[in-house]
């Protein structure tokens, strides 16, 4: 069982502690770190250099054999300097603790710099927010949102949390739900799109459905529709670049405002896509978290201009998280 300790030492924040169980007796310190604590070799090497590993209160050799009842402590929350300059960038904090945070990103900003010297990203804004509270660190997004997609994004505050959350993401243990407004009436009220996605050979930014692409799975349900548009609930099983945009465009239903994939351009100045729900198990406490954020004003104004009544589609969201 992993326990949280408030013990502090130079260059380290809180430590976690693990009591060696009988089934791990006789294994090496390294094997225990890689086993129940799920530490990568890279992280183990980093902790060794920073004296961030203790066995029964002393720095151990990594090949030392452990006994049942031994206490292993690991400094997985090091104090880190920011790797980007702080800038005031708008966003809302939906949840935050010592290991992670979930923020509601506005449309129109990148999650992190995509070219050298780029500023004004969400990462710059988070660093500014942390510094205003007397804290510092590095921003580690667990997943991405396109520049013009609004909504929830999960941020790890240290490398260990990022490693565990990245593993959960790859194992499909992090639930991500979106709301999209697409052109036209979608024929099937619900379904799953299983079409691989690859780079479009004819366009440097676009992706396309291709048998040579990476597997991509999108689950969806129609919440409301008329002859002009459909409001869609979407759950991602995989997270390919532009996945929702590509999949619905391939069905003949591009997103409103999505110029890159041929969507109608009236009513909104960006693709009508919002990441509205994240549900996951906290990697260190084990607590299950479900966090939500309703779409911003431009998304709501679009749906109203298309003659949707809000209750038409919000009633269907009661099924989310099932």
Automatic annotation (TrEMBL):
Belongs to the pseudouridine synthase RluA family. It is an enzyme of class 5 (isomerase). One of its GO terms (biological process) is enzyme-directed rRNA pseudouridine synthesis. One of its GO terms (molecular function) is pseudouridine synthase activity. Keywords: Isomerase. InterPro entries: PsdUridine_synth_cat_dom_sf, PsdUridine_synth_RluA-like_CS, PsdUridine_synth_RluC/D, PsdUridine_synth_RsuA/RluA, RluA_PseudoU_synthase. Its EC number is 5.4.99.-. It holds the Pfam family PseudoU_synth_2. It catalyses: a uridine in RNA = a pseudouridine in RNA. Residues 99-250 form the Pseudouridine synthase RsuA/RluA-like domain. This is Pseudouridine synthase. Responsible for synthesis of pseudouridine from uracil. The active site is at residue 146. It comes from the Bacteria. PANTHER family: MITOCHONDRIAL RNA PSEUDOURIDINE SYNTHASE, RIBOSOMAL LARGE SUBUNIT PSEUDOURIDINE SYNTHASE D.
């Amino acid at each position: 069982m992993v326990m949280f300790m408030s013990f502090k030492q130079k260059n380290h924040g809180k430590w976690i502690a693990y009591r060696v169980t009988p089934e791990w007796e006789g294994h090496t310190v390294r094997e225990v770190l890689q086993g129940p604590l799920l530490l990568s070799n890279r992280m183990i090497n980093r902790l060794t250099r920073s004296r961030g590993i203790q066995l029964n209160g002393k720095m151990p050799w990594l090949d030392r054999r452990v006994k049942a009842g031994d206490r292993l402590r690991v400094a997985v929350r090091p104090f880190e300097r920011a790797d980007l300059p702080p800038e005031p960038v708008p966003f809302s904090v939906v949840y935050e603790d010592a290991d992670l945070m979930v923020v509601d990103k506005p449309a129109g900003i990148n999650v992190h710099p995509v070219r050298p010297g780029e500023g004004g990203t969400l990462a710059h804004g988070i660093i500014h927010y942390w510094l205003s509270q007397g804290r510092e660190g590095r921003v580690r997004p667990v997943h991405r949102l396109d520049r013009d997609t609004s909504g929830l994004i999960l941020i790890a505050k240290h490398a260990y949390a990022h490693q565990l959350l990245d593993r959960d993401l790859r194992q499909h243990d992090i639930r991500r739900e979106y709301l999209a407004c697409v052109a036209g009436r979608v024929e099937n009220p619900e379904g799953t799109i299983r079409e691989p996605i690859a780079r479009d050979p004819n366009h440097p930014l676009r992706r396309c459905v291709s048998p040579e692409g990476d597997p991509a799975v999108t689950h969806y349900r129609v919440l409301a529709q008329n002859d002009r548009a459909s409001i869609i609930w979407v759950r991602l099983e995989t997270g390919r670049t532009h996945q929702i945009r590509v999949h619905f465009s391939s069905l003949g239903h591009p997103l409103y405002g999505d110029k890159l994939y041929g969507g109608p351009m009236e009513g909104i100045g960006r693709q009508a896509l919002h990441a509205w729900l994240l549900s996951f198990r906290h990697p260190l406490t084990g607590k299950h978290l479900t966090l939500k954020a309703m779409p911003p004003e431009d998304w709501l104004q679009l749906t109203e201009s298309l003659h949707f009544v809000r209750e038409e589609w919000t009633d269907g969201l009661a099924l989310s998280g099932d």
